């Protein structure tokens, strides 16, 4: 079984303090939409957030955990998820992708046998411009010692972690600029809203 994980531990500081996981997207709060997509794909979903009080709108079946060590960015959130999950495979997504869809999640989940067998440690989408999307990826929990060792050196870069494990790139056939569009600032959200209304 694959564990769905939503990383929502950030401060939303560039969003002017407004929690981006609660922004209305397609008629529902973004984190509710993201959770629903994960549950449709892998059934189980947990959330890494240091603000559980914001997330009372989620069903009780969704567990919420704070970062084990704060201020470690997404890599610290992944480490916490790997510690608390009872599953070896984790489908990890950020909380700020309003165009995320079930197709890309299902494509990633298809790689589960290769991760289970040890052929791969992770599968990460790769955009046409060569950029990787490590915050929408499938990971095996065996890489937790690698992550913890890296964090002990105060290096929080996702790229450093990817370079240290066996990763397969998943070429994205969809419009990757759209599917991985991030909401980081009020301007990003305004741009998304204009496109959504069209």
UniProtKB/TrEMBL annotation:
Pfam families: NTP_transf_3 (PF12804). InterPro entries: MobA-like_NTP_Trfase (IPR025877), Molybde_CF_guanTrfase (IPR013482), Nucleotide-diphossugar_trans (IPR029044). Keywords: Cytoplasm, GTP-binding, Magnesium, Metal-binding, Molybdenum cofactor biosynthesis, Nucleotide-binding, Nucleotidyltransferase, Transferase. GO terms for cellular component: cytoplasm. Its EC number is 2.7.7.77. Mg(2+) binds at residue 96. GTP binds at residues 7-9, 20, 67, 96. It is found in: Cytoplasm. Signal peptide: none annotated. GO terms for molecular function: GTP binding; metal ion binding; molybdenum cofactor guanylyltransferase activity. Its cofactor is Mg(2+). Belongs to the MobA family. Transfers a GMP moiety from GTP to Mo-molybdopterin (Mo-MPT) cofactor (Moco or molybdenum cofactor) to form Mo-molybdopterin guanine dinucleotide (Mo-MGD) cofactor. The N-terminal domain determines nucleotide recognition and specific binding, while the C-terminal domain determines the specific binding to the target protein. PANTHER family: MOLYBDENUM COFACTOR GUANYLYLTRANSFERASE. This is Probable molybdenum cofactor guanylyltransferase. It comes from Aneurinibacillus soli. The gene is mobA.
């Amino acid at each position: 079984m694959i564990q769905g994980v939503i990383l929502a531990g950030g401060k939303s500081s560039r969003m002017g303090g407004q929690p981006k996981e609660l922004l209305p997207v397609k008629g529902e709060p973004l984190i509710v939409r993201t959770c629903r997509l994960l549950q449709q794909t892998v059934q189980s979903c947990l959330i890494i957030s240091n603000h559980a009080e914001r997330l009372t709108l989620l069903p009780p079946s969704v567990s919420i955990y704070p970062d084990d060590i704060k201020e470690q960015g997404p890599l610290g959130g992944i480490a916490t998820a790997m510690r608390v999950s009872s599953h070896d495979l984790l489908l990890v997504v950020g909380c700020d992708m309003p165009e995320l869809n079930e197709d890309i999640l299902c494509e990633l989940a298809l790689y589960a046998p290769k991760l289970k067998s040890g052929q791969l440690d992770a599968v990460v989408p790769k955009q046409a411009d060569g950029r990787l999307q490590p915050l929408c990826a499938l990971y095996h929990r065996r890489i937790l010692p690698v992550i913890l060792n890296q964090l002990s050196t105060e290096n929080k870069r996702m790229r450093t972690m990817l370079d240290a494990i066996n990763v397969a790139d998943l070429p994205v056939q969809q419009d990757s600029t759209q599917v991985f569009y991030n909401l980081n600032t009020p301007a990003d959200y305004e741009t998304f809203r204009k496109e959504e209304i069209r």
